[in-house]
Amino acid sequence: MISIQLENNQQVFQPGDTITGIVRWKNLHTPLDRVELRLIWFTRGKGNLDVGVHDSRTFEHPLESDQQEFHFVAPEEPYSFSGKLISLIWAIEAIAFPSQEAAQVEIVVAPEGKEILLHLGDAQSTASSSSF
Question: Which residues contact 51 (CB under 8 A, 6 or more apart)?
Answer without folding.
Answer: 40, 41, 42, 43
